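Let's practice the habit of predicting before peeking. Look at the sequence and jot down your guess about where helices and strands might fall. Then scroll down.
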Amino acid sequence: MPITAVPDDEPALVTFTSGSTGAPKAAVRTHGFLLAQHRALSHALDFEDGEVDLVTLPVFVLANLASGLTSVLAATDLAQPGAPAAAAIRAQCDRHGVTRCTASPAFFAGLLHAPGGMPHVGKIFTGGAPVYPDLLRRLRAAVPDAAIHAVYGSTEAEPIAHFPAAEASAETASITRRGGGLCAGRPVPGIHLKIIADRWGEPLGPLRGGTFANLAVPNMQAGEIVVTGEHVLHGYLDGLGDSETKIHVDDRVWHRTGDAGWLDDAGRLWLLGRCAEKLPPFTAAAGLPTAAMSYPFAVECAMREAFPQIRMAAIAWQGRRLLVVGTPGHPQETAAIRTKAEEFGIAQIRHLDHLPLDRRHQAKIDYPALRRALEVR
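Done guessing? Here is the structure:
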């Protein structure tokens, strides 16, 4: 089971091959959770023999190693995914025959904006942060022959759902524009997913099955996203954090993702943002979950559809619904944003030069940092 690293004038090209007699020995010794996660990722990411994957995220390098795929580490500063070295990356793709790419949304957005644009690949998988509809549209336009997928998951449950860009439609775009949130697609095989009444911050369980069933809400209602399955982590080291994020139900452990969402009647999952960032209530548009507008993604995704070049964040501030705009602001632009925001119960707008983002993906709003920035203004 050799692992070889080829030195070059760029990050290493890493190749993994298993022995000729079956599963790699390392995989046999891996904990059952990791094996289950590998199986789930292999299915969701559509691995095929002989593929060469340009990657920026460690979990996908591990998945490739376990499947015998070649991983090419992107020739860029991986700590700055939003500013990829596009020319060096395109050269890598040509040199090593890259056939697919797995990376964060900020990485793909950066490539699309760079001179020369996207390298041609046959498959694109992106996740780890919100994958907005406009990014999927731009990727489809740039590489129309590629199979493009948005993947939703978490460290404890990877993957949870996936959304093929080919299934993005006028219908899904309309739901987002009206305040329905972000479509994450259908749950992956092997995972059980429920929406329960939002009681985030309150430990739940252990519970009997019937009691837990009573917490679940039907399709078209918003609440907490909880999952269970072989590839879902059942607990943390020394149990730290278990009481807040795990629900023991009979012989199963359910993981509380901390995300709010809803399921439509087609079985698709829609993301509404973090439960901890709930907004003051505002009734959603007809045909959407009544409580959808109580979460930030409902507003942020709708506003992004109207203003795709401007990053915005919805936040509860001094008991009101506040929209923070990541530009200095110009009178005409501000007036247009204010008019649109009023549709979602927001009358107060603040401008910052930029919005604080998470360090890892540079794509998710860092709400605690945003509050600190607002306090000093």
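How did you do? DSSP finds twelve helices and 17 strands in the chain.
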